[in-house]
What does this fold into?
Amino acid sequence: MELLLPILIATIPAGTAVLFAALGELVAEKSGVLNLGVEGMMLVGAIAAFAVASTTGNLWLGVNAGILAGMVMSLLFAFLTLTLMANQIACGLALTIFGVGLSAYVGQSYLNIVLPIQPELEIPLLSDLPVVGRVLFAHQPLVYVSWGVFAAVWWFLYRSRAGLTLRAVGESPSSAHALGYSVIGIRYLAILFGGAMAGLGGAFLATMYTPMWVEGMTAGRGWIALALVVFGTWRPGRVMLGAYLFGGITVAQLFAQSRGVAVSSHLLSMLPYVATVVVLVAISSNPVRIRLHTPASLGRLFEPTS
It folds into this structure.
């Protein structure tokens, strides 16, 4: 328990950035849009948040800047794919490449700056519970925000009329258009939400989880978020489970390295990504289930007719 408890405590923060990004991409894909630019949006959100927080001394201004930066990046993607009707896969890959380069360029001035470590927000009474209290109720504020986002996304998709409309757009945009819904407008909003969540995930990494800027600090988390959505069969609960699975394995391999396990550090660093994908593939091994939950119009362009 002395070894397991610290791993459990660190698992949730380690998976939070991926959870934010994956929930945002889930909503975008439910509308029928495939945005492969999550990694780039996270990086731009991270450097925007860190730059503003370090310049102004206000952490929450930085977090909002990260959200805004992610939304601007996603708006560029939306304009290219929804207005100019460009290929979604090509634009998503280009967005990631652009985000990687832009964040590296802007971040050169912030390489040697470290932000103050933010204290954990302990929930009164609950944080005093044995084991569970430290694991669930003593984290930084954005961890609790991620739980709120998860609950809101689940309720929106399965309990609200707007969520039903979004899913209808993802399944049959022509039918939704015939009923009078603005398919392009709905998809714009879904993409903007996805960008905001990717930016928030990057902001969490740069200002709270590791309060410093390192080039490429997302380390593939954007790609993991994309994989979680697909292998989680577009269900918020499975996406959250996958995010914490990734966080748990990441933390476990760091503990293993710190204890001098006689395995190459490069191999240990690779394990979270491999294990997350392998487990999620096993969970979603039924191809029929995947086809049933895949948005029918995912990745397909839609041009409304008058």
Q: What stands out?
A: The first strand starts at residue 121 and ends at 122. Residues 34 and 299 are 5 Å apart (CA to CA). The chain has 13 helices and two strands. The mean pLDDT is 91.
